[in-house]
Amino acid sequence: MEVIIRPTAEDACRLSARLIADRLRAQPRTVLGLATGRTMERVYEHLAAAHAFEGLDFSLAVTFNLDEYLGLGPRDPRSYRWYMNTHLFSKVNIDPRNTYLPDGLARDVDAECARYEELMREMGGIDLQLLGMGRTGHIGFNEPLSAMRSRTRAKALSETTLEQNAELFGGVANVPRRAITMGVGTILDSRRCLLLVTGEDKAWVLAKAVEGPVTSMISATALQLHPECRVIVDEEAAQLLENRDYYRWIFDNEPEWERYR
Ligand code: GLP
Fold this sequence. Notes:
The protein is 37% helix and 16% strand. By secondary structure, the chain is of the alpha/beta class. Helix 7 (203-211) links the parallel strand 9 and strand 10 (229-234). Helix 1 crosses helix 2. The radius of gyration is 17 Å and the shape is globular. The mean pLDDT is 97. Residues 35-39, 66-67, 132-134, 140-141, 161 line the site of 2-amino-2-deoxy-6-O-phosphono-alpha-D-glucopyranose. 2-amino-2-deoxy-6-O-phosphono-alpha-D-glucopyranose (GLP) binds at residues 35-39, 66-67, 132-134, 140-141, 161.
């Protein structure tokens, strides 16, 4: 794991977008794993700007999203499909046929999950997985007790997550109780991971995710097992990390970060 601390959320989002853009330039047929949530909106704005002003090319890119609410179809403005179309896909030159999300209206949920896993395999696996983190420390919708080796499946959302997302649904009672999500094992199979976390309300759980013991109660701790995981955070989220001076030194001194400084 490599933890990179940037002064503000804007800096953290910009750096994350640059790392994604650089991967896409190095490997135009990249298979990207994508995430949703408020934190990611700014990252997608930067990627859309890189497409508009620097010619960043998405024409060969393939994307798989982490998750989708069960019961919501693609035309529902609260679905993650709608979110992705709005924030990214409609703003870049990606072929919509190369953008995949789990089908929230699938009648046979188990079959849909198996199909999603199979598709990722067929496309060669995820090259770079972008991740946010919920307040329970979940990645995707891998709520507490998600097995370290879990694959794509339906998962019930915890009370904390329902509350966190209530605003977008006009109250807790309207938030879907279940979602299809890539499993922790699915995420760990990606070649590279980028976890982006900002804001002081996540400082406590971020410290546990990065410096705490690996536990299925906090699925982000599983990323400690990933061979190439970068964690990009702002100072607010980093404030409870014990080794933050060491992490700051890495960004300021390691040659691989030189062109991002
Ligand atoms: C949802 C998504 C997660 C995301 C999290 C954080 O729960 N399923 O993938 O990381 O929200 O969202 P936000 O960035 O809005 O805090």
